[in-house]
Design a protein that fits this description.
20% helix; globular; alpha+beta; 29% strand; single chain; six-stranded antiparallel β-barrel
Length: 370
């Protein structure tokens, strides 16, 4: 398929800048926001009947009504760390954004990062992260046009270094949010799933943000299983596609870990004819990377750069829940591959008409095979 087939007009007012919430007026006249993870809107695509279900009264908590005892949800339990830092360049005091990607060497304090504005940062430059604090980094290599390798000059045990480094960071919200509003302390909590466990993501597995503790308990009571895998989400999903022919686009590699326990839960559910629902784009890419020719999930510890777009034959999950995403995004392409291009694009046009919110903090789309 072609990139241009995934274009649609998305009003800026429908890009969610914060999670679903209710606003209350305090006695002193101030406003207070109460965030409700599981109260976003929900649209449902029924693949077999080729129908779209949408109602103002349908919200994310209703997702349990589409699943039965023995069905399984597969979650990505990666944990987001506060990856966005701001420092100053030595001598000039120019403000520099440093976006941590991953630690390269624990002993040497080497990190792979992105810097902005990159044109000001050269090998040998030093960056200071506190006016009078000890956190200093030296640029030791160029990796890409915006990429650099930093060596942090901070002499202490590694655990203490990580705590101090992360204390300087903020939630790594995508630029379409941070360019429109300031990042707040609450964002680090809001941009983390309640089941996050394994640190390593620089953006959230966003669909998982809708699951509250109350909803997870409701699923447990109904006999719906939860299986947890790990894919450390990178910024690759936000990379613009620069080729019209989608077969020529290359995704960034991301680390995937799928253990025996998750495989046993998923495979038992599938073998007994129950639904297996992938929670989000990252989970679907991980399970499609690790599915065997027999349609069963295999243990996996490695990396994936799998790029899924129509047409594609899925081997693992037979249901999926995802957010509504931007035009020409890889997330939209995977959704169209799973749900069917025509009906997914119809659903997206309907979502625009009906005022659904898009993006990481946006509303949700469930696709079921009935």
């Amino acid at each position: 398929m072609k990139l241009s087939q995934f274009k649609f007009k998305l009003p800026e007012s429908q890009i969610a800048l914060e999670p679903t919430h209710r606003t209350f007026q305090n006695e002193d006249g101030t406003e207070e926001k109460i965030y409700r993870r599981d109260e976003c809107r929900l649209m449902v695509i029924h693949r077999k009947s080729q129908s779209i279900e949408s109602s103002p009264s349908l919200n994310f908590r209703n997702i349990v009504d589409y699943f039965d005892d023995g069905d399984t949800f597969v979650f990505n339990d990666t944990k987001v760390f506060p990856a966005r830092l701001y420092g100053t360049k030595e001598k000039t005091d120019a403000k520099i954004e440093v976006f941590l990607l991953r630690e390269l060497n624990e002993e040497l304090r080497l990190w792979d990062v992105l810097v902005e504005p990159a044109r000001k940062i050269r090998i040998g430059n030093k960056l200071f992260f506190e006016e009078n604090g000890p956190m200093v980094a030296e640029v030791i290599d160029n990796t890409t046009s915006r990429g650099r390798t930093l060596r942090f000059l901070y002499d202490c045990p590694h655990d203490e270094f990580k705590r101090e480094l992360f204390a300087l960071g903020s939630a790594p919200l995508p630029h379409y949010i941070v360019d429109r509003r300031p990042v707040e302390d609450i964002d680090m909590e809001n941009f983390q799933t309640i089941y996050a466990k394994n640190e390593g993501a620089v953006t959230a597995p966003a669909t998982g943000l809708h699951f509250s503790r109350e909803l997870m308990k409701m699923m447990e009571i109904r006999g719906i299983n939860s299986a947890f895998i790990t894919l450390h989400c990178s910024l690759g999903c936000f990379d613009g596609i620069e080729v019209e022919d989608l077969t020529k686009h290359k995704m960034n590699s991301e680390q995937v870990i799928i253990g025996r326990e998750a495989c046993d839960i998923v495979n038992e559910s599938k073998a007994n004819g129950h639904r297996v629902c992938a929670v989000g784009f990252s989970t679907m890419r991980a399970t499609e990377t690790a599915v065997g020719t027999d349609g069963m999930l295999k243990e996996f510890d490695g990396w994936t750069n799998k790029f899924i777009f129509p047409p594609y034959d899925f081997g693992m999950c037979n249901a999926m829940v995802t957010n509504f995403y931007h035009p020409e995004s890889t997330m939209l392409m995977l959704t169209a591959a799973f749900g069917g291009y025509d009906i997914v694009m119809d659903a997206y046009r309907k979502a625009v008409r009906e005022g659904f919110q898009f993006g990481c903090y946006g509303d949700a789309l469930l696709i079921v095979d009935d």
